[in-house]
Amino acid sequence: MSANHEELIEELDAVEAIYPDLLLKRIDDSGLIQVKVSQHEYITLQISFPAKYPSDEPPHLLEVSVSNSAPGGADLYDIKYLQQLFQEVLESVHHKGAVCLFDFLTELDGILYMEEEETQEVTNEQTNQELIQIDPFEGWVSSDPITDRGSTFMAFAAKVNSEEEAFALLEQLKTDHKIRKANHVMSAWRIKNNDLVFQDSDDDGETAAGSRMLHLITIMDVWNVIVVVARWFGGVHIGPDRFKHINSTAREAVLKAGFERAN
């Protein structure tokens, strides 16, 4: 038995002693286990351990499943999103030469607690929206999404006559669950009302993105517009290409919304 395998068996023994009801399937010839997440037993993970774990490689998260006993039901949970999030956590807690399964399960408990609070907030918002029949995308025209190395960009444009109307539409858009999960929701607006002119932007954490969007609608010479670009980060930095995608989707949304060059 290799040193790696011995460490793995000892780790599983320790996890099983601490969480006796969570480990559903012990290590087999394929290096696979099934384990439930502490305090969130409706989530089951399939994890494999490569031969070089823990000396060189982290475990691999193969599958995430959510049972119908989950708060609000399984349909509220985005499995693809959870798998990506959990894999990032798994890689972050692994340090070469040290076992990490216990740390991983402990870290997930805290992350899921925050995720579920957010999910509950969104559920309450969605219930309120249904009562008053608000469509988050009402008044908006969207671009086609662009995906590059896991990151997705999508733009939305709307006609507005005042900053108050622009901000209200932006808050309405942000009530959508997927928009709320975007890493950045950048915006720029340009409004002319008689002799009053309002133009500004918001980077929302993506440095210089908002000002570039404002520059775009300025050179397009369009007015009474707000344009928003949402970015869902895929874990891989794509450098300056992100600005190309931001401008490309923003321009498409503005044109699809029917804005024409001012006279």
From TrEMBL:
Matches recorded under SUPFAM superfamilies: Ribosomal protein S5 domain 2-like, UBC-like
Name the UniProt key words of this record, in alphabetical order: Cytoplasm, Repressor, Stress response, Translation regulation
- CDD domains assigned: RWD_ScYIH1-like
Keyword check for Methyltransferase: no
Q: What is its main location?
A: cytoplasm
What does the entry give for GO biological process? Answer: cellular response to amino acid starvation; GCN2-mediated signaling; negative regulation of protein-containing complex assembly; regulation of translational initiation
> Ranges for the RWD domain?
10-115
Question: Where found?
Answer: Cytoplasm
- In this record, what's one Pfam family? RWD
Q: Show the GO MF annotations.
A: actin monomer binding; protein kinase inhibitor activity; ribosome binding
User: Which InterPro entries does the entry mention?
Assistant: Impact, Impact_N, Impact_N_sf, Ribosomal_Su5_D2-typ_SF, RWD_dom, UBQ-conjugating_enzyme/RWD, UPF0029_Impact_CS
List cellular component terms (GO). Answer: cytoplasm
Which Gene3D superfamilies does its entry note?
Impact, N-terminal domain, Ubiquitin Conjugating Enzyme
| Family to which the UniProt record says this protein belongs | Belongs to the IMPACT family.
PANTHER family, A to Z: IMPACT-RELATED, PROTEIN IMPACT
Protein name as annotated? RWD domain-containing protein
Its lineage reads:
Eukaryota, Fungi, Dikarya, Ascomycota, Saccharomycotina
This chain is encoded by the gene named: NCAS0D04490
